[in-house]
Structure formats: structure tokens, C-alpha cells
Design brief:
Elements: H1 3-13, E1 24-27, H2 33-46, E2 53-58, H3 66-69, H4 76-81, H5 95-107, H6 110-116, E3 117-121, E4 126-129, E5 132-134, H7 140-157, E6 161-169, H8 173-185, E7 191-194, H9 197-203, H10 208-223
Parallel strand pairs: 2-3, 2-6, 6-7
Antiparallel strand pairs: 1-4, 4-5
Length: about 220
Amino acid sequence: MTIAEKIIEFFNELEAPAISTPEVEVLNPLLRNETKEIIDKFYSRYYNDHKERIAFIGINPGRLGSGLTGIGFTDPVNLEKVCGIKNSFQKKHELSSRFVYDMIEAYGGVATFFKDVFISSVVPLGFVRRDVNLNYYDIKELEQELTPYIKEQFEKQLPFLRRDVAFCIGKGKNLKFLSDLNKKEGYFDEIKVLPHPRWIMQYRLKRKTEFIEEYTNLIKECAKL
């Protein structure tokens, strides 16, 4: 199987976790036929080879980005204009996606970047509470409830990921959870950390170019290993 076929199989078999935490709803873009078609087109285009990728691990999908498109850190605008995959979703930019695709351009473009990296997340599906994005760690009860599901999904992704190194996107609670989990399960030999794109865009926008260089330099360094 190609890497594309392995990734598409992962998404085709992905089921939503059963959640009992009050007021929390699962954000599952795979319920839309268009999203399933996008996933097939995207990975068939950029991952049609046998090269394992470096995991680029975010938190969980949001409503305006991969919670719509199914592609990590990819909003409908970048999906169509940069990745060349037309879609019927409302063309609104998502803040993190804007940074990530500016970084991808600096890296050498989508074909070069996606040849090295697979954008994933600790939880492959998103969550909302009262129609607002929710991170898996925002509610301790939810985090604990999701842990077995998270472990199961990581194990299903390992066949198309490099095991020597991975990137954690976010230096706070996402890093702590992922580091603790990795110590117990040994998914990756090393986890390197990068600041979250949303934090950069909201609080360090004047230093955006500096952070893009941090991202591209570290990823290129690891891609050569």
C-alpha cells in the first residue's frame, strides 16, 4: 500500500469517540461526503508514494479549519487556492491555517512540505461546547475520557509515520499530555516542540517571520535525518 492508501484507510475507518462529558459534542467532518472526497483527493495527490512522514501533531480540529475540510490546519481558502482542491465550503480564512500555509510557502511549497510532513493532532476529531471550539484538555473529565481513544488512533497512524521524531504543536497543555503519553507508550523516540500558530498570530504577530524561520529550519533539519 502507498502512504496515501494507508492514510485514506485510516480516515475511512475513523469513528467518533463516545462522549459522556456534559454539553460536549463531537465535531466530525467525515459525516459529509464532500469531506471524504477531499481527503481522498488531497492524500492521493500529495502522498502517493512509500515514504513515511514526520508527524506534525496539533490539538484537535476546529470548526473553520480541518473541522470542515478534514485536512489538518487547512481552511477552505487554502485548500482551494494553494492545494488546488475545489470545495463548496464558505471561503473564510482560519487564523492558524494562515500561518501554516505562509510557513509552507517559505518551506518550498505544498508538494515539498507534504513530502516530509503529515499534519495530525492528538485527537483526530474536534469538539464544541455551546457552538464554540473546545480543546480536548479544556475539561479534565473529557481528557481522561478520551485517553483510550487517543491511544487507539495513534497506533492506527504509526504505519505511515516516522518513529524517530515528531513535532508537538503547542508548548502548553498539548505538549504535557503528548509527552506523558509518549513516555508511557513509546510512539516516538523524540518529540520536538513548536509554538502554536494561533498563539503566534494572536500574540506575536510582529515576530511572524521569525517563527516561520523557526518552523522551517527545524522541520528541514529533521527531514534530512
